[in-house]
Amino acid sequence: MKWLFILLVVLNVSFFAWQMNQEQTYGTDLTQLPAIVGENLVLLTEVDNLSSRTKRPPRPDGREMPAACYQLLPFKNIEEAERMAQSFRDVGIDAEARVGEEKEKTGYLVSLPSTGNLEDAQRTIEELKTKKIEDFAIVTVDGVDNTVVLGLFQTQPAVERRIDELKVAGYEAKATEHFRKTEVFLVEFEEKSHHSVPPELWLMLTTEYPDVTRMSFQCP
Hints:
The chain is α+β, with helices and mostly antiparallel strands. Among the domains are: 64-102 and 182-217, Alpha-Beta Plaits (2-Layer Sandwich); 104-181, Alpha-Beta Plaits (2-Layer Sandwich), CATH 3.30.70. The chain has five helices and six strands. It has a six-stranded antiparallel beta sheet. Mean pLDDT is 77; it is low at 22-56.
């Protein structure tokens, strides 16, 4: 029995030695593996919108082209606009306060065809007086000077009634939309692909100026 136990131990040791020799013979040498080809790995904690890291072509003056351009409007005065522009500049975003122009529709002008000549317009007015047609003026309409206008109307039915009255009197009148130009105070800013407006700045803007809206426009 003792010799049988010793024989089993010897057999186990011999088998273990043989197995170790096989692994050394056929095992993989890690130093011979080919290098990984491709981009470097990036930890998820390091990813910060990788697509935004690609720079846009520079302007002729060497500055980077903005990813987008916006207008903020309207502000009550240029001082308010300038304060907001400075807030954007404080966080490294190009911004400028300026005075723009806004068109507000006021109605429809009913006018007669014009040659642009003042004497022709005055003769037309004298004719209108003889036909008891009033409410006229000589103004510039669509870039044509000395145009005889016969009223400013708010609704289309009122325009049509006036045109019909003039047609009965022998005149072919037309209606033109009329706009009033007003000043508007605004802020223009550029948002770079790698530098967005901080959320806290948007929060300040919407809190202090709830009526201000953002509009995109073509970057210069």
